[in-house]
Amino acid sequence: MSPTFDRLVAEAETVSVDGWDFSWLDGRASEQRPSWGYQRMLGEKLAGVQAALDVQTGGGEVLAGAGKLPPLMAATESWPPNVAKATRLLHPLGAVVVANEDEPPLPFGDAAFDLVTSRHPVTIWWDEIARVLRPGGTYFSQQVGPASVFELVEFFLGPQPEEVRNARHPDDAARDAAAAGLEVTDLRSERLRTEFNDIGAVIYFLRKVIWMVPGFTVGHHRERLRELHERIEREGPFVAHTARFLIEARKPG
To answer: For the chain: N or C, fewer Cβ within 10 A?
Structure first.
């Protein structure tokens, strides 16, 4: 192994992956952003409601950067380090962060919110979203689409079956929203170029986004990581493609 490989691995293996801030990757990886501008749109929607809920808020970074929050603002998060980080960030802005497992029910009463949001949720409990929305309320979310960054996933796991590649399809989200009684008013999707400039960026990404390569550890995947490092050194950045979709759904009433 080259000293460069060892140094990059040691650095990426020890850096904190708390929260949902990817700024550590600045200059080491790049990702095209969806054309619709989720955070800007989120701010516009928050400005027009009195009570909102952000589900699976992570470290609260996206919500905190969306602008002025409504008079009643709640957020849920399940991972303890993120709960603490989101509380520190959002509490001074007037939001309460509720520690909650990503399982139903949501810890709120029926028809509690005008707006429910979430960016890149791992799970979506559509019946619960519909339950906590007031009649006329809206669910607004940017989600990870099918086969996202699968060039990297399949480098480590090998070819994936079609049912795995097609999971998290926007059409399925629209169907599930409708089944919960919501009317889909906006649905857009894009595939976007992502580049990893060094093996440290790959390690950080897979440590942070733990569902991409389940059970990923540097120790277990070291030889494959070395192969990828040598490929990047030889050919340049490793290119993958993220899938993103935006969905907005309204509760009738």
So the answer is: C
